[in-house]
Amino acid sequence: MTMLSGAIVVMLISITAGTAIRVWAFAIFAFFVATGLGVVTFTGGSSLIAATLSSMAILALMEVSYLVGVFLSGLWRRTRKFPKSGSTADAAHATDEHRGS
Q1: Contact, 51 vs 59, CB < 8 A?
Q2: Is 100 helix (H, G, I), strand (E, B) or coil?
Q3: How far is it, in rounded angstroms, from Cα 13 to Cα 52?
Q4: Sequence-distant contacts of 34-43: CB under 8 A, at least 24 apart
Q5: Cβ contacts of residue 83 below 8 Å, gap of 6+?
Q6: Whole-angstrom Cα distance, residue 52 to residue 91?
């Protein structure tokens, strides 16, 4: 149960980071967190292979969660930028009318 709660916390932090920080900053952060968790797993009595695989799994989970956060943030920004009184098709039609006159 501890690994599940840790994975959920890592996912939530990574999704939140996807909305706020740059890719290179998150990559450095994720590397250190995954390495730290791998060291904790290794010192807890697991084998080096198990600790390495656990660390890589956490790193992959963090990266995927970060991408989800970036996607959701972009989607949220995009939905807020649409005009309130029409769709994008109406804006393109209006632009064509201005070019004709």
Answers
A1: no
A2: helix
A3: 22
A4: 34/58, 34/59, 34/62, 37/6
A5: 90, 91
A6: 53
Phi, psi of 75 (to 5 degrees): -65, -40
Could you tell me the mean pLDDT of each successive run of 10 residues in the chain, 101 residues long?
77 86 88 91 91 92 90 88 60 56 53
Q: In angstroms, rounded to a whole number, what is the distance separating the alpha carbons of residues 22 and 25? A: 5
**Placement of tokens 């998150």 in the chain:** 26
pTM for this entry: 0.69
Contacts of 43 (CB under 8 A, 6+ apart): none
CA dist., res. 15 & res. 9, Å (int): 10
